Amino acid sequence: MVKDEAFSGGKGQGNPYLGAIKDALPQEEVNTHALQRYDSTNDTTVLSLYRYGARHAAQFLPQPETGETILEIGSGTGDSTLELFLKYPGVDFNILGIEQSQGMLAVAQYKFHHEDGENVMAAEPNEQVQSFWNAFRQESESYQGRVQFVNDDFLTTTSLDKEAYKSAVAIQVMHWLDSGEKGKDLTSALSRFSEFIKPEGSLLWTTSSHYFNDKKFPTLEYNCRYNDFFKFVLEEVSHSYAVNGVEQLPQPKQNLESVQAASRAAGMETTQLTTRMNEFDLQTLVSFHTPRIVRSLLKEPDNVDDSELQKVTKAAVQKAIGNIYDGTLSDTKHIHDIVPVFMSVKK
């Protein structure tokens, strides 16, 4: 499977979720244990990682009109879709979700009662994922008739009407659309959105700190990928395999000035609304980030057996945890993912 550069390492280490249902399950597994506390003026609740990010962004969604359809690009497994509905539960609006990954689309269809579950269960999700889905389906049931999911590539689709949408949403999508390949840059991506948004319409979008360098919270100072924990693990792994250091991870390619310049070139005006700081616990760093970062930094990944790499990485992680316990490792600054929230308005 060919992947983009933007994910976590060098070329070939891009979007890991494109493909079959089994390729979408890792995101759902993260949802079962990477939990975040969400505080609002009326309540405090605990949400899965992706729903937490979507709920935070959805607070900036302009109120839709009755009967309006919101265009959601990169609707994934439906987490952000549900949060958009929950933002305005009393308004009868619809959502059209465009998702390139067949596997993620299939999961979203099941979570919104569009499928009976035979296909997703054949991928053998674990009990925690099935429990997460059951709870999600209870919340989504009343919205099942108001959402349509389409498997398509947003950059090449011919199925959307021009200037038909007052509001569009793209949660954690823009870094996939700006991969550096021909025709895949930020100006081109925003121009594509502009084709389908009505004049004075808006695009609400978020991205990640491996793509955007926040002025107040610079990636190198706060992002979890530069934690001393990973540096220690990589040093241990280097005794068995040739690996690069974390400094070889891709640096953010955009800042606010470059985003705004690309927006103007696309006929839009972009404002950074806020920045969210996700604080990752040790469990999430170990189980989700560590295997991906280690593999992405291998100098000769094609010559490495996955099972043997897992054993070496596990031993390195165990040693690193021991050093945390005795105080040798104590990096409490690089523990975040920095998530900027933007609003782009078509002029």
Give a written overview of the molecule:
It is a single chain. By secondary structure, the protein is of the alpha/beta class. It has a domain at 21-217 and 250-280 and 335-346: Vaccinia Virus protein VP39 (Rossmann fold, 3-Layer(aba) Sandwich). The chain has 13 helices and nine strands. It has helices at 21-33, 49-58, 79-87, 102-111, 118-122, 127-140, 174-177, 186-196, 219-222, 228-237, 256-265, 282-296, 306-325; strands at residues 35-39, 44-48, 69-73, 94-99, 147-151, 165-170, 197-206, 268-279, 336-346. The strands form two sheets. The protein has a seven-stranded mixed sheet, sandwiched between helices. Helix 12 (282-296) packs across helix 13. The model is unreliable at 1-14 (pLDDT under 50).
